[in-house]
């Protein structure tokens, strides 16, 4: 069974057109379908779900549609906060991924509250991508690495695939095993481009509000058929990554030795020791950088929350 | 009840495995038929009765094939500018891939990328290039002079031939061009930050995009055709496939 499934919940507007109702109703039905799907996933022991709720590109839609979606978000996040006991009982950890500074401040504060309240839950995880595009996420990850260099925490040569993995919004989640997109479109539309390189992609033509348990089973079946081949490809890639890192460390250690060795030939024993020392130091640097990054991210939410409490008291 | 569900699930698995095995027995025939059908359906051809036959080259039909390909290409409202061929198969068949590349060129696609997730084509790119030139000669015959192919490697971008009436660019890719490419660009930017030529806050999506595109400026793939039984992108250019249709 997949441990982490990602959904691109496409087709709300087409559904609304099909039923001759308002777009807003299509989105509301879409939300209800999401809640239902999460329950199915829990029953099937799928512990982590990531959903594409709102793209940065969606800001370009008509103002009344965007406002409607923001209002829906406001209502749903408020509802979530009311059901905190339920969330605690099921151990649901909610994370919201994206450039939250693009959202209205009151929604940012609601999100901060929800995230902080469920932070320590660890039975199942819901990642909501809101104000998100993958390119922004990758750019942000590179920016964070550059910030690390600026702060003197890491060197440019420390930047690796592993480091960028940890700088993404999804650093606390494993890569999705399965990505499902509804409504028949066969694009990724800037969703988890980095994380889905070895995920099973399933494109289903059903519209999101019409999604059924059998559609989910169909997708899982396809995942199971692809599982072996994908695992093999993933393992190959992981091996290649380790070798690449070792090679990079070797070059850096050799450079350092040359700088201090005054051009004398270096014996293999010394080279090996220098490599081990360099690798240990690099890992130390990366560790302290990642700790600082996590603190920076936590501070973003706690500051928002303080502002929320302050404005609530006022 | 759970036992019943498990049994049903296992039956479904068995049936699907059987279907896959049957398909792989007829692999060569199936593949030829698939590419013959897939290429025109993907380009949105009208249903010509002789469509399926024409893409399997046979002696006498060659000249009329070429004319058909060109006219069919022109009759389409919209052609993808850049097609990616994602080969996820166990065996590497250079001739079949070369055929595909030549067909794409003949229909009028300007950019073709060939990718496999083990980097086999990248390592043997000269063999693939030779095969493409050979197929170009065989399939297009006299007309092949009109088509010039530019092969791009990462090290040199010097065009091999002059620009004639139709030009296509073929690029061979591997996972090194995907995530590794992004890591390299990130390292370069961090070096600029270290040298205080840039600040971390200077980076935005457009800047990173132009760093990844490099000097060649190939457009993002419009369409990626996947060959093989694996339903995944297997690391094909993650940054560039933002809006790419995957079939």
Automatic annotation (TrEMBL), chain A:
Recorded name of the encoding gene: Dhdds
Higher taxonomy: Eukaryota, Metazoa, Chordata, Craniata, Vertebrata
Protein name: Alkyl transferase
HAMAP family found in the cross-reference section: ISPT
Residue ranges crossing the lipid bilayer per the database entry: none
Keywords: Transferase
Pfam families given in the database record: Prenyltransf (PF01255)
Protein family membership: Belongs to the UPP synthase family.
Annotated catalysed reactions: n isopentenyl diphosphate + (2E,6E)-farnesyl diphosphate = a di-trans,poly-cis-polyprenyl diphosphate + n diphosphate
EC number: 2.5.1.-
Keyword Transferase: yes
UniProtKB/TrEMBL annotation, chain B:
Family: Belongs to the UPP synthase family.
Entry keyword Endoplasmic reticulum: yes
UniProt pathway annotation: Protein modification; protein glycosylation
Gene3D superfamilies: Decaprenyl diphosphate synthase-like (3.40.1180.10)
Name of protein: ditrans,polycis-polyprenyl diphosphate synthase [(2E,6E)-farnesyldiphosphate specific]
Organism: Polyodon spathula
Enzyme class: transferase
Enzyme Commission number: 2.5.1.87
Superkingdom, natural source: Eukaryota
Organism phylogeny: Eukaryota, Metazoa, Chordata, Craniata, Vertebrata
Annotated compartments: Endoplasmic reticulum membrane
Keywords: Endoplasmic reticulum, Magnesium, Membrane, Transferase, Transmembrane, Transmembrane helix
Cofactor(s) it depends on: Mg(2+)
